[in-house]
Amino acid sequence: MTIALGLSEFTATELWTFTFVVLTFGAYLYIGYANRVRDTKGFYVAGQGVPAVFNGMATAADWMSAASFISMAGLISFMGYDGAVYLMGWTGGYVLLALLLAPYLRKFGQYTVPDFVGDRYDSQLARVVAAICAVFVSLTYVTGQMRGVGVVFSRFLGVSITWGVVIGMAIVAFFAVAGGMKGITWTQVAQYVVLIIAFLIPAVAISAKLTGNPIPQLSFTFSDITEKLNQIQIDLGFTEYTAPFQSKTQLDVLCIVLALMVGTAGLPHVIVRFYTVRSVRAARFSAGWALLFIAILYTTAPALAAFARYNLIDTLHDTPVDEARSMEWVASWEQTGLLTLDDKNGDGVLTLSPEAAENEILIDRDIIVLSTPEVAELAPWVIALVAAGGLAAALSTAAGLLLVISSSFAHDVYAKLIHPEASEEKRLLVGRMTIFGAVCVAGFFGIHPPGFVAEVVAFAFGLAAASFFPVILLGIFDKRTNRQGAVAGMVVGVVFTASYIIGNRFFGMAPFMFGISAQGIGTVGMLINLFTTLVVSRLTPPPPEEIQEMVENVRVPRGAGATRSH
């Protein structure tokens, strides 16, 4: 009787959400436990035995984080054309990684990016600098994932964002610690299935409802929905939804796209996925599968963004305040503090205005995707499924990032430098302890984030671009690049980029590099890194002959199916 009374206090959406969360989280925990590992090869690279198609799914889930699922469509919805920088940068970056770097890195046959840097440049100092950069980048990235988890839990389970982050920390720490890369990989396969179904079902339903065409990509392209939205925007005093360069300059757009592209190609948690397959050939195929799986969501996001903005304006603008607050979804999101209705002029009617001082509807960009099924009045189970998908996206990426942090310290620093004679059990213990420490730090910044989910993730991409991309690119294609150049380039690139981002976000520093924003400064950091690496390498002695021969061999197709021993 008590249980029945308690359940009766929940809405249908909350009951469905609780059901989906219990079922999906139970599946994740079981998969992580069933694939637990007892050796470092299984912990760091899943035993290098993951089939290409499943590695493609895991890579897609690892790469399509809370920023892709929760925040990207929200940013496009608010920014219009200018928000497409995230879409173009992240998609283009994966193509760049898959075609330019992944096969060669797999042929090199190491466990981690710092492993590659340390051995390619024959330098323990380079290994340590790369490990520090990997930890810094990954902590920044995982902060965004924890924030996404907190947003979902705060709305759909009625807990605070703080407790939502704590719950997410506990779940992701469990299957990351128990299963390592093997457990994470198979968990991510399940999470991809959940997140892509959760993203597509509401998009298809809303597309059919607004345009009569159930295929979002076609309805967005060939229907008159964008023309209607453009006219509504103009009538309200905004610029056209599809008008370019309204909130960002052309230079800033270019820099953000490039930072996201080369940042993707330098992300350690994505690169390590290509070490988990059997051969270079399998790495190429898994890259192709991943691109297909990624494209399904990324071609749907612009349509969902337009539908969401159209529905929000239609639902809230020029609506009596009391009527708006009587809507269940409005009342629920207001309680989280992520939606604010403020009748500033006291006329009892809500007004959406381009002027901040007059705007009476304030919506956090991170709730657009999560709230859209509710605004469209879809079934409670669809709303709950979207919540489960958002959690799957955040947790899948968080797990991969935590493993990178673990491997960067336990494998690249502890096992290689501090205690090379450590037993297999000792190395695993240090790796698992590192994950716990990283979870706590990420949780703190998830509760106190420096920006929206996608913004925080964009900072991580910029840091990856400024630190890793040049040394990986030159490490493969320029045998003359040496350890002195690599170390100097990484240090200069990451220090410049991090200083710019921290100064801009925390200390009110205005953008001084031609108006380039904190999200785009990674491009400048990457160019500084590239220039520094090339110049210093040419002013110092060349690498040893055996290192140069190794670089030549890595690029030779013959024997590409073989796996180098570690």
C-alpha Rg (nearest Å): 24 Å
The biggest sheet amounts to: 2 strands, antiparallel
Backbone shape? globular
Mean pLDDT: 82
Q: Strand portion, in percent? A: under 5%
CATH topology value of the domain at 12-311 and 377-448: Sodium/glucose cotransporter
Report strand order across the widest sheet.
1-2
Q: What fraction, in percent, of the residue positions are helical?
A: over 70%
How many strand segments? 2
**What would CATH call the homologous superfamily of the domain at 12-311 and 377-448?**
Sodium/glucose cotransporter
CATH class of the domain at 12-311 and 377-448: Mainly Alpha
Give the number of helices.
25
Question: What is the CATH architecture descriptor of the domain at 12-311 and 377-448?
Answer: Up-down Bundle
Q: What series of H and E elements makes up the topology? A: HHHHHHHHHHHHHHHHHEEHHHHHHHH
Structural class, from helix and strand content?
mainly alpha
Poorly predicted residue ranges: 1-8, 558-566
| Alpha carbon gap, first and last residue | 60 Å
